[in-house]
Amino acid sequence: MDSGGGGSNSKAGGEEFVESGVYHHDSNHHHHRYFSSAIVKIALLFVVAVVICFALNQSTYPPTQFFQRSYLYSSIPKNEPPENQPSSVNEENNLERILKKASMKDNKTVIITTLNAAWTEPNSIFDLFLESFEIGNQTKSLLKHVVVVALDQKAYSRCLEVHLHCYALTTEGLDFSGEAHFMSEDYLKMMWRRIDFLGTVLDLGFNFVFTDADVMWLRDPFQRFYPDGDFQIACDHYWYNYTDLNNSPNGGFNYVKSNNRTVQFYKFWYTGKDYFPGKHDQDVLNMIKFDPFIKEIGLEMRFLDTAYFGGFCEPSKDLDLVITMHANCCIGLENKIHDIKMVIDDWKNYMANSFVEERNSSSRTWTVPRICG
Ligand SMILES: *[C@@H]1O[C@H](CO)[C@@H](O)[C@H](O)[C@H]1NC(C)=O
Ligand SMILES: *[C@@H]1O[C@H](CO)[C@@H](O)[C@H](O)[C@H]1NC(C)=O
Ligand SMILES: *[C@@H]1O[C@H](CO)[C@@H](O)[C@H](O)[C@H]1NC(C)=O
Ligand SMILES: *[C@@H]1O[C@H](CO)[C@@H](O)[C@H](O)[C@H]1NC(C)=O
Ligand SMILES: *[C@@H]1O[C@H](CO)[C@@H](O)[C@H](O)[C@H]1NC(C)=O
């Protein structure tokens, strides 16, 4: 297996490194039903072989079938918490303790985001993310529930600087500040590592909202979540209704309650990395959402309407309704930052005029996406 240490700029190699950033691409409309329990059982026997193939074939997987976007993740090993560190560091970095401190007291809910060095530069995505909580309508108080999962030292330091709850998902001897391009080997490893990590959070009994740092928080989302949903996810495109599996989910924003169904579901989802080598979590989600296993465990899946949880793929049309705005459907860190800044300006304008009695429809819409979308 290629190590993720270097990285050419060649597109062919699957090791293309550009600016980093978390991002989830448009969902393809897969309707595979072959991830059935029976096949799962049989396929278990082949997991080892598949893993080996995965390792050998990784660099030949053609990323071109996907809409290319920049991504945040670097190579992340399985081990956690960090090894070879003084025990005081491990104590400081105890996940359960951090979650407990950060969680909403009434319902053990945390807000989780991931971060690496490139997104912590001054004026970069992370600053805009934080700013959105400041300028959002009653979102500021949510900041104290945010847990930043830092992927490198720089991100960790930046997190401490802004006094958020910080968890270091790093391992001695590996450099996570390197930037993994969408669908590179490192990128895939990190995406799957994240699913695994979020499964651990559920295991520990915490509900979470996972949010990419390029999601702007403009209103409190909790009133808009479905009371009866276990797993609720934002969409690139909201085609149908909130239960319709044909919607196109985007893994960059989701709300998950901790219970036996979701714990099982995350384990199931995570095994998808072995059954669908070369696919990332969002593609696998699009395949397994139809699987009978989901019905079997009784998982209630909900799709969040883009009217409230919008993005550049499909912006919410009415600023009176918008809750979050995701810089999805956007290639390139600079473009992303440019358009997010426009989101912030639009929102400030909107809020500044919030006392105007009759806002007409043009004063309640976005000027974005400009470059993205
Ligand atoms: C959890 O509790 C907080 C207050 O501590 C509240 O704002 C939030 O809406 C609650 N979330 C859910 C899902 O009930
Ligand atoms: C902000 O939230 C408060 C309380 O929910 C609400 O009364 C007010 O109308 C909101 N302002 C805007 C601009 O949405
Ligand atoms: C949502 O869509 C599904 C599938 O198309 C349909 O069976 C269901 O009745 C719809 N639910 C609502 C509330 O419209
Ligand atoms: C799972 O179910 C068992 C038994 O019904 C229960 O004791 C346990 O607390 C549940 N776990 C979670 C995470 O809800
Ligand atoms: C809507 O309001 C804005 C400012 O309040 C104004 O400039 C614009 O002309 C109005 N548009 C319409 C169609 O009335």
UniProtKB/TrEMBL annotation:
InterPro entries in the record: At1g28695/At4g15970-like (IPR044821), Nucl-diP-sugar_transferase (IPR005069)
Superkingdom of the organism of origin: Eukaryota
Keywords: Membrane, Transmembrane, Transmembrane helix
Transmembrane segments: 38-57
Domain Nucleotide-diphospho-sugar transferase: 142-339
UniProt cross-references to Pfam families, sorted A to Z: Nucleotid_trans (PF03407)
Protein known as: Nucleotide-diphospho-sugar transferase domain-containing protein
